[in-house]
Design a protein that fits this description.
Elements (H helix, E strand, L loop, with lengths): L12 H12 L5 H8 L3 H13 L19 E8 L5 H9 L4 E6 L6 E7 L2 H11 L7 E6 L12
Helix pairs in contact: 2-3
């Protein structure tokens, strides 16, 4: 595999096979992948390195179960703020450890955030204290009742 140019953003079938194997088992060794695909270990190592450098593979991570760490409430919160305060709100939301995701979105509420909380009291404390310190006009909270699907992008 050659280094991808800015104009060439596609990957080949071998790269797709490597990615699919890593999506099934991100701890799979270069040697195991090489055996599966029929390439040398060094060729697989090189291809994975290029896929990382070119931004196709963003990393390998450990997935934790929030409930095992006492985080029983997942909340999706939409925030409305003045246009002039958007950059300040972004900056302050990034500093909040309760939040897993922060999105700047279109629509009435320019921010959607997803956070984990121990219980309803913890969520209420976040809403009344953490959010009250930043310039927010209004917010809408939805508590996740049942997680039906939660997947990462796959090919």
């Amino acid at each position: 595999m050659r280094r991808l140019s800015p104009q060439m953003s596609l990957i080949d079938d071998i790269d797709r096979q490597i990615i699919k194997l890593l999506q099934i088992n991100p701890r799979m060794s270069y040697s195991e992948i090489a055996r599966e695909i029929g390439f040398s270990r060094n060729a697989i190592k090189y291809r994975i390195k290029i896929l990382q450098e070119e931004g196709f593979l963003l990393g390998f991570r450990t997935v934790l179960n929030p409930r095992k760490f006492g985080k029983k409430i997942t909340a999706v919160i939409s925030l409305n703020t003045d246009l002039s305060d958007i950059n300040q709100v972004k900056k302050e939301l990034l500093e909040m450890p309760e939040l897993l995701m922060v999105f700047h979105v279109s629509g009435k509420y320019p921010f959607t955030i997803i956070g984990l909380f121990e219980d309803h009291d913890d969520l209420q404390h976040f809403l009344n204290n953490s959010l009250s310190d930043i310039p927010i006009n209004e917010f809408d909270v939805k508590v996740i009742i049942d997680e039906i699907k939660d997947t990462e992008f796959v090919i």
